[in-house]
Amino acid sequence: MLIPSFDRYLHCLDAEGNEIWSFYTPGSGITGWMISTPAAGDVRDDDNLEIAATSNYHSIYLLDAEGAPLWQHSQYGYATASPAIGDIDGQGDREIIVGYGSYLIAHDPQGAELWTFDVGAGYDIISSPALADLDGDGQLEAIIGDIDADQPNDPTRKAWIVSSTGDELWSMELGGVPGAPVVADINDDGQMEIMIGTRAGHIFYVFQADSVLPETGLVEWGMFHHDPWHTGLHGFEITTAPVEVTLTPESTTLSPGDTLKIDVVLSNRTAEWQTFAFATVVKLPNNPRCRSVVGPLELTLFPEAVMTGQLSHEVPLIAPEGDYQYRALVGTSPEDIWDDDEFTFTVVP
């Protein structure tokens, strides 16, 4: 995970919270503070992740996955808006678009500034832009809002739609816009809606774009941090297993001779029949090898079906004490596992 900090560092931590690397931005006072969260994606089309990050009143950076800077572009202004990544001109490159002070700025993968769009002196873009092809021309528009930091409820502040070349396409006075706009087809009518919340009157607006929804791939950055899980990762998608398995043990502390009872749920997440293999294995204490317990069994579920059942296993009288790992798998082969679930149970005297 990537964590920006007021200590002017961007920290990269592993899943256990250990620091892998950190990147420092110089400055004094509020200059150099890393206030906004970064974005990540294969910006340079080299099959590696790059990280776009900003520092307050200082610079926008592109870092490699090890935290080494690839380029730096100096800026001056509040850097509270998180960057967005997308192919705004439809030419195959991924650009970085970010609000910096009163400017929306687009950079190419090498760091060159493509264009700037100014919302007006004295106003700030403090939220991440959304990027989507609103008119079906194969190019992305940026949807942003601005705010008056001294008068955040100023009703004259605007939401904007900016073209892929940095030109104003639309604006409307809504009041200060502190949060990122969201673009999605929320009512499944084939047209995109734009959702914007404001400070003035605490009003939430929903606008409908005047065009038929293009292919979904052209909603490249639909909200703050890209997606509903707020990964900040360009190209991120949640892939759903055709069949999911869930295990719920009745008890996780047993003695030799007891019965381990496990409720099993198999769910077909598709609109098609699914034939698959189901198996369970167990790993004994201090033994890296797994032992087969059930199956593999060939099962078939009709579309969107849910199958429930219970497995029962008697704990052998000679079972060693310690922690056991029980795991269930579904898929078509050991090399094609669709889903799995596991739990730990303990054998005590």
Automatic annotation (TrEMBL):
Q: Name one GO cellular component term.
A: membrane
Family annotation (InterPro entries) = FAM234, Integrin_alpha_N, WD40/YVTN_repeat-like_dom_sf
Chief site of localization? membrane
Membrane-topology annotation of the record: Single-pass membrane protein
Q: Which UniProt keywords apply?
A: Membrane, Transmembrane, Transmembrane helix
Q: Where in the cell is it found?
A: Membrane
PANTHER family noted in UniProt:
PROTEIN DEFECTIVE IN EXINE FORMATION 1, PTHR21419
Name of the featured protein: CARDB domain-containing protein
Provenance organism: candidate division TA06 bacterium DG_24
